[in-house]
Design a protein that fits this description.
single chain; 279 residues; mainly beta; Jelly Rolls; 8-stranded mixed beta sheet; 9% helix
């Protein structure tokens, strides 16, 4: 007796290992490529390169107005920086320290570019210091720079407050200044909230007061939360000699990706341009 029309799908027969579908002889041919194209067109799900986020800057005038409803100063990025090729050891683990070969941090023409992760080499040029209690130290994590293969530095435990900055773990860089003068200190930062947005700068173990920072202290704003952005922290006076430039947290949890010292009024380069300058 022929099967009546229904909505139960294709006819199945019971086999010993389960049900088996009986396909009709007049089964239409399916062009899967055409179906894929029509699906992508209808649902607008074609794989496209997502535009790069704008590069945000917080300059001298950033803190002069209420930031709650203010627009950021930001510029489009057309290209990412060059990706880094990390080596792998015998256990196939990524060896980031091997790629850090910086042996000299020397200012040139009133400018100095520093990658925060230079401290991982623990060299005479850049190094980390533990907190006074010996429990905390800066660690690295992947960032958005260098074509999303860059590194930033962050304290592993967030939410720690240091009443005395000198008791906090430090990022330290031995820099050589050839042109004496006032330098603007830009940091490429990631600040998630107002519990992780306080730190101080130090030159030759002399800590700069928070009141000398353009923000007068905390760096968090809703418009810059959870993004990497360039923040003009303060100005420092540097003489023509060797100095130790340091960063000490007061509230841990923020990340530092890059450091830019300049005597000029230009903005720090975006990822692609930075890559051409520092490599």
């Amino acid at each position: 007796m022929p099967r009546k029309k229904n909505n139960l799908g294709l006819l199945c027969t019971l086999e010993k290992d389960g049900y088996d579908v009986i396909y009709p002889k007049d089964m239409p041919e399916i062009d899967m490529d055409k179906i894929q194209q029509e699906t992508e067109c209808f649902y607008q799900i074609v794989c496209k390169e997502i535009p790069l986020p704008n590069q945000v800057y917080a300059g001298k005038n950033f803190w002069k107005i209420d930031r709650l409803y203010a627009h950021n100063e930001e510029y489009p990025q057309k290209r990412r920086g060059k990706k880094r090729n990390y080596s792998f050891d015998e256990q196939t683990e990524k060896n980031v320290v091997k790629e850090i070969t910086k042996t000299d941090l020397r200012e040139s023409q009133g400018k100095l570019c520093i990658e925060a992760e230079y401290v991982l080499a623990e060299s005479n040029v850049a190094w980390r210091t533990f907190s006074k209690d010996g429990k905390q130290r800066w660690e690295h994590l992947q960032s958005e720079t260098a074509g999303r293969t860059g590194l930033a530095m962050q304290l592993e435990q967030a939410g720690v407050i240091y009443e005395k900055p000198e008791d906090a773990p430090g990022l330290n860089y031995r820099i050589t200044i050839q042109h004496e003068g006032v330098y603007h200190v830009w940091l490429l930062l990631y600040i998630p909230d107002d519990r992780s947005d306080l730190f101080v700068l130090s030159v030759d173990n002399v800590i700069q007061p928070l009141q000398e920072q353009f923000s007068k202290g905390g760096q968090f704003t809703y418009g810059t939360s959870h993004i990497y952005y360039w923040n003009l922290i303060s100005d420092i006076q540097l003489t023509s000699q060797e100095h130790v430039f340091s960063i000490f947290p007061i509230k841990s949890g923020f990340r530092v990706d890059r450091i830019y010292l300049t005597m000029g009024e230009e903005l720090p380069s975006n990822d692609y341009e930075w890559d051409k300058i520092i490599r």
